[in-house]
Design a protein that fits this description.
Number of strands of chain A: 10
CATH superfamily of chain A: P-loop containing nucleotide triphosphate hydrolases
Radius of gyration of chain B: 29 Å
Strand content of chain A: 25-35%
Largest interface: B-C, 44 and 46 residues
CATH topology of chain A: Rossmann fold
Largest sheet of chain A: 6 strands, mixed
Strand order of the largest sheet of chain B: 8-9-10-5-11-12
Number of domains of chain B: 3
Shape of chain A: globular
Oligomer: heterotrimer
Helix content of chain B: 40-55%
Structural class of chain A: alpha/beta
Number of strands of chain B: 12
CATH class of the largest domain in chain B: Mainly Alpha
C-alpha cells in the first residue's frame, strides 16, 4: 500500500511578481486520500494546478509513478493533456462545467482520450450509479444544473478518463452542508474502489475526517503534515485558519 | 530649469527644420518634396488614429472614411464655380454648393470640423461597443461614407471624383499643420487629462472608480481623432489634386494602422518615426514594380510586389516586435542629460461620518449573492469584512462602489442615498476602493497613475489642455496635483519609483500604489479588497501598520476584505462575517474568534 | 412584379445568401474559439476560386478533380495561415492577432496580384449548370442557382453533424467555452483549433468555387467585400453559432437581392445594407440572433 504514486520536491509557482507557492514538498502513496488544506490564498489551488500542468512550475522533482506499468515519469514541463493520458485527472475549482453542453456531453468530454465505446458506456453507468441525480438530468445543459449537481458532474467527468490519481479542487465550495456530507461520502466510496485521491479543501474539518494524511499549507509553504486525526486535534490548524 | 532647457532645445530644432523646409525647393527635386509632404500628412493621420487607438484604446478602422469627408469638404470649398460647372457632367451640382468658396486655410479647418462632427455622430452609438466589434462597426461606417459619396453625384460628382484641386499643400503648409497638431497633442497628453485618456485604455473599470465618466472621454478622444483624419484627408486632396471615392478604401486605413503599429501604439514619437519609415519605404518599394534595366538585362516590374513586401513586414513586426519601435515610450531631451529628483509638500486632512447599509439584497437571475445585509460603520473605524470563498464580500464592495445595482435595500453614505449610483458618482461622493486583482494603468508611470485619481478634483476643461500656454490653469493645477501625488507616493515609500512604469513594480508596491491612487481622489471612506493577498508574512506585517497609519493620517474610515486572519484580527476594530451571502456574525476580533458559527463557516461543520 | 420574376429573385437571394453563410461559418468557428476576426478568411475564399480556375481552365482537369484539388490546396493555405501568423500570438493581446490577420489578408491579396496578375479572368461555366430548366411553361430555373443552396445546406448539415455527433466536434464546442478545462480533459487544443481553420477554409473554398461560377470570373480582390459581409452575417446570426452564421448569411442575401429588386433606385447602396444591418443588430441585440452573452468580470 505504501508505494509512491506522486513525489514532489520543492515545488515553486510564481505569477509575475507573486510567489504563490514556496518550496512545497509532498508525497502521495497508492490508495491514499491525501488532503491539502489551508486558508484562502495559501496557494492550495496553485499546487494542484502545477501538478496538472496548467501553470508553469519549478521543482527539484515531480515524479508520477503509474500503477499501470510502474514506470516513473517526470511531470515537469508536460502539457495538461499529456497528464490525462498518464492517468491523472482534475475536477477543477469552481466546477468549470461546460455550460452549453449536456450532462452526457460533459461526461463524453471527460472520456475524450479513450476510444473503447463499451468501456465508456460502462463508466457512464458507473458514475450514474454514484450520482443518480445526473442520470435523471443526462440530457440537460450544464448551465441548468444546481450548484451541487454541477459539482457532482465535475467529479464524474474527472472519473471518465479512468484516472489512477484523481485530484479534487474544493469539491465542497458553495454547497449546502447536507450536500457537503454527501460529496465526502462519495469521495470515500471512490477511494475504496481503488482510486488514489488528492483533495484540496477549505472545509478543513470535513477534509481531515475523510483523509488518510494531510498537509497544511500556510501562505505558500507546508506548515504541518500528519494523519487526518492527528491534525484534527492540532490547535495550530485552527490558528492557520483563524489567525491565532 | 529642465523645462526651460527642453523648450529651448525644441524651439532651436524646430527653427532649424523650418530653415531646411525654406531651402527645400532648391535642395530637393519634386519627387522628394512630395515624399516630405506625404510624411507630414501621414504623421497627422497617424497621430490622430493613435489618439483614438493607441492612447484611448478604441480599435477604430474607420479613418479612411473621415479622410474622405475631409478631402471632399475641402475640395468643394476651394473649387471655383467655373471648375464645378465644368466638372459635374452627369448631374447638375446643387446651386447652393456651386458658389460656396473659401480660402484654403478655412477650408481645411472646416474639413476637420465636418469630419469631427460625423465622428461624434458615429461615436455616440458605436462606442458603446468594445474591441473587435468597434473595429468592424467603424470599418462599416467608413464604407458607408464611401458608398454615400459615390451615390450622391449632385453633391460629390459621384464616382467621377474631383479634379483640378489647386495644389495648396506646400511643405510649409503640411509641416505647419503637423507642428500645430503635434503641439496640441503633446500638451494634451502631458496634462492630467491626457493621463485620464490613457487610464481609460489601460483599465476602464478602475478609471470609473476614479470618478471619471469614461464614455465622455472616449467620445471626446474619438471626435478629436476624427478631426485629425479630416484635416489629413483635406491636405492629401490638396497635394494630389485629384480625389475620387476609390482613394479612400480600407487599404488607406491599413497604411495608417501600419504606421502606428510599427512606430509603437501609444507613442507620439513612434507615430512620427513610423510615418517617416513607412512613407519612404512605400515610395522606395515602388522600384520593385517598375522595370529595371541593369546593363543589357531587363527585369520587368512586378505589380503588387510592393504591397506583398509591405504586408510581410507588418506580420513580422507584429509577431516578433509587437510593441513597435518605440513601444509606449516618448522622445525626451532628458535622455541627453542626467536625472534629478523632485520634492514633496505638506498634506491636508479630511473628516466624514458614516456608512449605513440596510437590508441590502443582491440577486443575479436566480442566484442570491447577498441576502439582507445590514450594518453601520462609524467615523474613523477600521472594519473587516470576512467570510469563506463565495460569501459575497466582493459583491458587497461592488454594490457599495456602484458596479452593481442593489436588488433591494439602502446604502447611505454620510446621510445620502448612494445605492444605484454609477461608480464615478460614488467616487465623487467620497468613496474610493482598490481591487482584488490589482487594476493599475500598467503602461503609465507611477505618478501619472496617482494623478489620474486627482483628476476629479481639478477644475480645468479638456479643451484648455490644447493651449496650456494661454490657459495657464492647466499648468498650475497639474503641478499642484503632481506635487500632491508625489507627497502620497513618499508617504507610501514609492517616491523613488515615481517615474517607473506601474506594471514594472514588485507586487507589494503595486498594492500600495493602488492605495495611493485611491487616496488621490480625496476619499473619506476607503474600501480595500484583499490588500494582503499574495504578500509574505513580513509584508503583511508592514501592511497592518500601514493601514492604521492611513486611517490616522488621512482621517479615513476603512472597510477591508481580507483572508489573512492575522491581518484582520490585528488591524480591525470590528468585524462583519458573511457566509454564502448571509450576514452570520459581527463583533470585535475576540468575539469573532470565539463565535461557533464563524468557526464552523471556516473550518467546516463539527469543528466548533 | 410577376411570380416568375419573383421566383428568379428568390432563387438568386437563396444562393447568394447561402454563399455568405458558407463563408460566415468559417468566421464564426474561428471567432468562437479564439475571439479573433480572421480577416484573411475572405482571401482564402478567393484562393479557392483561383485554384479551381487553374485546375480546370488552365490545366484542363475534369471539374470533379479540379474542385477536389482546389479544396485541398485551400485547406492547406488556411492551416498555414493559422500556423504562421496566428499561433505565435495565442498568448498575446487579442488586438495583436487581429493586426496580424489584417497583414495576412493584405499579403494574400497582393501575393495573388503578383502571381495571378491583377486582371480579372473569365471562368467558363460548365454547360450542364447553365442549361435552363423550364417549369410550368414560364418559370425558368438555372441549375447552378439550385445547386448552390443545395450544396451549401448539405455542407452545413455535415458540419453540424460533425460538431454535435463526433468527438472532435465535441472538443471544438468545449474549447469555445473554456480552453483550459478542455485541455484538462486531455484534448490537444492546438489540433482542434487547426481543425477549425481547416474546416472553415474548406467551406470557404467551396463557396469561392461556386462564387466564381456564378459571377463567371476570378480576381485577386474578389474576397474582400464578400469576406467582410460574411463576417457581418456571422455577427448578425450570433457569433460562435454555426446555424446562426447560416441564417445571418441568408438574411443578408435576401436583404441585398430583394431591396434592389423592389426598389431599383437603391442599387447603388447595395453594399451599404450589410453595414447598416450590422450597426442595427449591435445596438439592439449585440449578441446576434442566436448568440450567447459573454460578460466581463470586475
Amino acid at each position: 500500500m505504501s508505494e509512491s504514486m506522486l513525489r514532489i520536491k520543492n515545488l515553486n509557482v510564481s505569477y509575475g511578481a507573486i510567489h504563490a507557492v514556496r518550496d512545497v514538498s509532498m508525497e502521495i502513496n497508492r490508495g491514499e486520500i491525501v488532503t491539502l488544506i489551508g486558508a484562502n490564498g495559501a496557494g492550495k489551488s496553485s499546487v494542484i494546478r502545477a501538478i496538472m500542468g496548467l501553470v508553469k512550475a519549478h521543482a527539484d522533482e515531480m515524479i508520477f509513478t503509474s500503477p499501470r506499468d510502474n514506470k516513473e515519469v517526470s511531470l515537469l514541463g508536460k502539457p495538461a493533456e499529456a497528464h490525462v493520458k498518464l492517468g491523472i485527472s482534475l475536477s477543477p475549482e469552481g466546477r468549470r462545467i461546460l455550460p452549453q453542453l449536456t450532462v452526457e456531453e460533459n461526461l463524453a468530454l471527460g472520456a475524450y482520450i479513450r476510444d473503447d465505446a463499451k468501456g465508456i458506456a460502462e463508466d457512464i453507468e458507473y458514475v450514474y450509479s454514484l450520482f443518480p441525480r445526473l442520470k435523471e438530468r443526462h440530457r440537460q445543459k450544464g448551465s441548468t444544473l444546481s450548484g451541487g449537481e454541477q459539482q457532482m458532474l465535475a467529479v464524474a467527468r474527472a472519473l471518465m478518463s479512468r484516472p489512477d490519481l484523481l485530484m479534487l479542487d474544493e469539491p465542497s465550495l458553495g454547497l449546502a452542508p447536507i450536500l457537503v456530507d454527501e460529496v465526502f461520502e462519495i469521495i470515500r466510496t471512490i477511494n475504496s474502489q481503488g482510486k488514489t485521491i488528492l483533495l484540496v479543501e477549505q472545509n478543513a474539518f470535513a477534509a481531515l475526517k475523510a483523509a488518510h494524511r494531510a498537509y497544511v499549507l500556510e501562505v505558500g509553504s507546508v506548515g504541518l503534515s500528519g494523519t487526518g486525526s492527528e491534525l484534527l486535534n492540532n490547535p495550530k490548524v485552527r490558528a492557520a485558519y483563524l489567525g491565532g | 530649469m529642465r523645462r526651460a532647457r527642453n523648450l529651448l532645445l525644441t524651439i532651436i530644432s524646430a527653427a532649424l527644420f523650418a530653415l531646411f523646409l525654406d531651402k527645400a525647393p532648391e535642395l530637393l527635386n519634386g519627387y522628394w518634396q512630395r515624399i516630405l509632404n506625404l510624411i507630414a500628412i501621414n504623421a497627422i493621420l497617424a497621430l490622430s488614429l493613435n489618439l483614438i487607438y493607441g492612447m484611448t484604446g478604441m480599435f477604430s478602422l474607420g479613418h479612411a472614411g473621415f479622410m474622405a469627408i475631409g478631402a471632399y469638404v475641402s475640395a468643394l470649398l476651394i473649387l471655383t464655380p467655373a471648375q464645378k460647372n465644368a466638372m459635374w457632367i452627369l448631374e447638375d451640382i446643387y446651386p447652393w454648393l456651386l458658389h460656396v468658396n473659401t480660402p484654403f486655410i478655412i477650408s481645411i479647418i472646416i474639413a476637420g470640423l465636418v469630419a469631427a462632427f460625423f465622428g461624434w455622430l458615429i461615436a455616440l452609438p458605436v462606442l458603446r461597443l468594445g474591441g473587435d466589434y468597434l473595429g468592424i462597426a467603424t470599418l462599416g461606417f467608413a464604407e458607408i461614407i464611401r458608398i454615400l459619396i459615390t451615390n450622391t453625384p449632385r453633391l460629390t460628382n459621384g464616382s467621377l471624383g474631383l479634379k483640378g484641386i489647386p495644389a495648396h499643400t506646400t511643405l510649409f503648409m503640411s509641416w505647419g499643420c503637423l507642428a500645430i497638431v503635434l503641439l496640441c497633442m503633446v500638451c494634451m497628453l502631458q496634462s492630467n487629462f491626457g493621463g485620464v485618456m490613457k487610464a481609460v485604455r489601460d483599465d476602464e473599470v478602475a478609471t470609473k472608480m476614479m470618478g471619471i465618466n469614461t464614455f465622455r472621454v472616449k467620445v471626446l478622444a474619438f471626435t478629436l481623432g476624427c478631426f485629425g483624419g479630416g484635416l489629413g484627408g483635406a491636405l492629401m486632396g490638396n497635394l494630389i489634386t485629384t480625389i475620387d471615392p476609390r482613394m479612400f478604401m480600407i487599404t488607406q486605413t491599413y497604411n495608417i494602422l501600419m504606421i502606428i503599429v510599427v512606430g509603437g501604439l501609444g507613442s507620439v514619437t513612434g507615430s512620427l518615426i513610423g510615418s517617416v519609415l513607412v512613407t519612404t519605404m512605400l515610395e522606395w518599394l515602388r522600384f520593385v514594380e517598375n522595370p529595371i534595366t541593369i546593363g543589357s538585362i531587363n527585369i520587368p516590374g512586378i505589380p503588387g510586389m510592393r504591397m506583398v513586401i509591405f504586408s510581410l513586414l507588418l506580420i513580422v513586426v507584429i509577431i516578433f516586435r509587437r510593441e513597435g519601435i518605440m513601444g509606449m515610450r516618448e522622445f525626451s531631451w532628458d535622455i541627453f542629460f542626467p536625472k534629478r529628483k523632485a520634492k514633496p509638500k505638506e498634506s491636508d486632512s479630511y473628516s466624514g461620518p458614516v456608512l449605513e447599509v440596510k437590508n441590502l439584497c443582491l440577486k443575479f437571475g436566480g442566484l442570491t449573492a447577498i441576502e439582507d445585509l445590514s450594518f453601520n460603520i462609524n467615523h474613523g473605524q477600521i472594519i473587516g469584512l470576512i467570510g469563506p470563498n463565495g460569501a459575497g464580500k466582493t459583491s458587497a464592495f461592488n454594490v457599495i462602489s456602484g458596479f452593481y445595482k442593489p436588488t433591494s435595500g439602502e446604502i447611505k453614505f454620510m446621510g445620502h442615498q448612494i445605492g444605484g449610483l454609477r461608480p464615478d458618482q460614488v467616487c465623487r461622493a467620497g468613496i474610493a476602493r482598490t481591487f482584488q486583482n490589482i487594476r493599475l494603468f500598467g503602461n503609465e508611470s507611477v505618478i501619472r497613475n496617482v494623478m489620474v485619481g486627482a483628476r476629479i478634483r481639478q477644475k480645468y476643461s479638456w479643451w484648455m489642455t490644447l493651449l496650456p500656454f494661454i490657459f495657464t490653469d492647466v499648468i498650475r493645477e497639474d503641478s499642484t496635483v503632481r506635487a500632491r501625488a508625489l507627497e502620497f507616493l513618499s508617504q507610501l515609500g514609492l517616491e523613488d519609483v515615481a517615474h517607473e512604469k506601474a506594471s514594472s513594480l514588485p507586487y507589494g508596491a503595486q498594492r500600495r500604489l493602488e492605495i495611493a491612487r485611491a487616496l488621490a481622489t480625496s476619499p473619506k471612506f476607503l474600501l480595500l479588497d484583499e490588500p494582503a493577498a499574495g504578500m509574505n508574512p513580513q509584508e503583511s506585517e508592514e501592511l497592518m501598520k500601514f493601514i492604521r497609519r492611513l486611517r490616522d493620517e488621512f482621517d479615513l474610515t476603512i472597510l477591508l476584505i481580507e483572508h489573512d486572519m492575522k491581518v484582520v484580527m490585528n488591524v480591525c476594530d470590528y468585524i462583519q462575517v458573511l457566509d454564502q451571502g448571509v450576514h452570520i456574525a459581527q463583533g470585535t476580533p475576540e468575539e469573532i474568534k470565539a463565535n461557533p458559527r464563524v468557526v464552523e463557516a471556516y473550518l467546516g461543520k463539527g469543528a466548533a | 412584379m410577376n411570380l416568375n420574376i419573383f421566383i428568379q429573385h428568390f432563387i438568386n437571394a437563396l444562393s447568394l445568401g447561402s454563399l455568405y453563410g458558407l463563408v460566415a461559418v468559417g468566421y464564426t468557428m474561428v471567432y468562437g474559439i479564439l475571439r479573433l476576426i480572421n480577416f484573411a478568411h475572405g482571401d482564402i475564399f478567393m484562393l479557392g476560386a483561383y485554384f479551381v480556375y487553374f485546375a480546370t481552365i488552365v490545366y484542363k482537369l475534369p471539374w470533379a478533380v479540379g474542385v477536389i484539388i482546389a479544396i485541398i490546396l485551400t485547406t492547406i493555405c488556411g492551416l498555414l495561415v493559422d500556423r504562421i501568423a496566428y499561433k505565435p500570438l495565442r498568448e498575446a493581446p487579442r488586438i495583436s492577432a487581429l493586426i496580424s490577420a489584417i497583414g495576412v489578408s493584405f499579403f494574400i491579396e497582393n501575393f495573388a496580384v503578383v502571381v495571378f496578375t491583377g486582371m480579372p479572368r473569365p471562368v467558363v461555366q460548365p454547360k450542364i449548370l447553365m442549361e435552363p430548366i423550364i417549369i410550368n411553361g414560364d418559370i425558368r430555373l438555372i441549375p447552378l442557382g439550385i445547386l448552390v443552396p443545395v450544396v451549401a445546406f448539405i455542407l452545413v448539415a455535415g458540419l453540424l453533424w460533425l460538431l454535435y455527433c463526433t468527438k472532435p466536434g465535441l472538443a471544438m464546442r468545449a474549447i469555445s467555452f473554456d480552453i483550459e478545462t478542455t485541455r484538462m480533459m486531455g484534448v490537444s487544443v492546438n489540433k482542434i483549433i487547426a481543425l477549425a481553420f481547416g474546416l472553415g477554409s474548406a467551406l470557404a473554398a467551396v463557396a469561392g468555387i461556386m462564387w466564381a461560377l456564378r459571377y463567371p470570373r476570378v480576381e485577386p480582390f474578389m474576397g474582400m467585400t464578400p469576406g467582410i459581409k460574411a463576417f457581418i452575417a456571422a455577427v448578425f446570426g450570433g457569433i460562435g453559432s454555426v446555424p446562426g452564421a447560416m441564417i445571418g448569411g441568408l438574411i443578408l442575401g435576401f436583404v441585398e437581392i430583394m431591396s434592389v429588386a423592389f426598389f431599383p433606385t437603391l442599387s447603388g447602396y447595395k453594399d451599404a445594407f450589410a453595414f447598416m444591418l450590422l450597426i442595427m443588430i449591435l445596438l439592439f441585440k449585440p449578441t446576434g440572433l442566436l448568440g450567447e452573452r459573454l460578460e466581463d468580470k470586475i
